[in-house]
Amino acid sequence: MRITPYFSAFVRNYAMESSSPTFVYSNEDYDNHVFRLIGSDQTPNLSKFDISVRTAWVERLQRGLFRYNLGNLETRILPGPSRFVAQLNIERGQQRRKPQEILSIKQDFDPTLFNFNKANSSETMFELIKPELCGAVHENGFTKGCKMVINVSPLEFGHSLIVPEPNQCFPQVLTPHSIQVGIECILLSSDPGFRVGFNSLGAFASVNHLHLHAYYLKHELAIESAPAEVVMSAQGLHCLTTFPRGFLFYTEGGDLHSTVSAVHTLTDFLVNHNIAHNLFLTRGCPPDGEGIGDRRRSGVRVIVWPRMSSFGAKEETGFNVALCELAGHLPFKNREDYETTTEQKVHSIIKKYMFSPETFLDLQTQLISCFTSLESGINHCK
Questions:
Q1: Residue 366 neighbours by CB distance under 10 Å
Q2: Using CA atoms, how far apart are residues 177 and 103, in angstroms rounded to an integer?
Q3: Quick one: 140 exposed, middle or buried, by C-beta within 10 A (0-12, 13-18, 19+)?
Q4: 380 among known catalytic residues
Q5: Is 165 left (phi over 0), alpha (psi -120 to 50) or beta?
Q6: 199 forms bridges with which residues in the sheet?
Q7: Which of 201, 213, 199 is closest to 108 using CA atoms?
Q8: Helix crossing, 256-272 with 176-188: angle to 10°?
Q9: What is the rounded distance in angstroms from the CA atom of residue 310 to the CA atom of residue 303?
Q10: Residue 50 neighbours by CB under 8 Å, 6+ apart
Q11: Rounded CA gap, 274 and 127, in Å?
């Protein structure tokens, strides 16, 4: 990776500071003037958040804290309307930490297993602080802060983990705070290639300690502008009309509280009904169709895919079906599959993990009932 002198200066300055600095932000730091990438070599202007993430990540790369040197990943765009971004990342498949044994979507946190409180402190890039959120102190004295930690087995440049309230030892189940921080990280970035995602237990989450993934991908994804139809307008709930079917929300930050509440209602419903799911956050077009074909990426698309659980399932040879694969980004673990796969083959693999159209429609009906009951003050979501 080429590092500019300006960027190198940030790395040197960072190295002289505390090993765990803080990044303090507010709503005023949101960037609503982001445009989609045109060509993989284009570099956008970097926000303060981007500079902090990239500087901290590169500094740890130079210190040799990763399990392998990521380098420039071999990449190809698969022919077809899905425009899958295939990348060859053999070392991640070979050297990443062995996933924990997961038996339930509601599995309790186990302090004896690896969790992010046990990670080497040098892997923490910085603490992410929003004063109005962190003002709420829990009974045990911990505040609502987040840690940004490097993923020592990265799938792309900047691959980090957002760990909300790590000392609370939450299991891998989304909370309103974690959803909000995930969305805000996208809004804080001026790079449309910055993505955030979440794998539930049973959906290829490998550590049962609440965390989200964040990374940069310098390729446009079809999911940024995929068409959607309205399911419940008042709640901002939409449904993607392209494969794989999922639920979509959209926000530019002004309605963040209501968006977070609606997303959490959906994911909480899935957890209570033992339905595995993946979540992906990316800059994208509004779901009403306006802006499709436009370069503007003023807001954030929040996509949730309910899916079949994968407890103890044998991993696919080419790639696992988790948050980035459902979004159209395919990290391959071997060259043969990387070079020979087609859009049709990818669809056939992903289809094994997705609900049938009939099951998905039934789930959508249940969700409508859930949201409607909450409006009337009667909770039918359990």
A1: 14
A2: 25
A3: exposed
A4: no
A5: left
A6: 278
A7: 201
A8: 130
A9: 20
A10: 189, 190, 191, 194
A11: 32
CA-nearest of 300, 341, 303, 302 to 319 is 341
pTM over 0.85: yes
What distance in Å separates the CA atoms of residue 184 and residue 22, rounded to the nearest whole number?
A: 16
**Residue ranges of E strands in 90-165:** 124-129, 146-150, 160-164
Specify the length of the chain in residues: 382
Tokens of 155: 């799938």
pLDDT values of the chain reduced to their tens digit, one per residue, 382 residues: 333 333 333 333 433 333 478 999 999 999 999 988 765 556 678 999 999 999 999 999 999 999 998 888 999 999 999 999 999 998 886 666 677 788 889 999 999 999 999 999 999 999 999 987 665 444 444 457 899 999 999 999 999 999 999 999 999 999 999 999 999 999 999 999 999 999 999 999 999 999 999 999 999 999 999 999 999 999 999 999 999 999 999 999 999 999 999 999 999 999 999 999 999 999 999 998 665 667 889 999 999 999 999 876 556 567 889 999 999 999 999 999 999 999 999 999 999 999 999 999 999 999 999 999 988 877 778 7
**Helix extents (H) in 284-377:** 323-326, 335-340, 343-351, 357-375
Q: Of these residues, 159, 209, 211, 213, which one is catalytic?
A: 211
Q: Looking at residue 170, what DSSP letter applies? A: -
Residue that is written with structure tokens 């989304």 in the block: 174
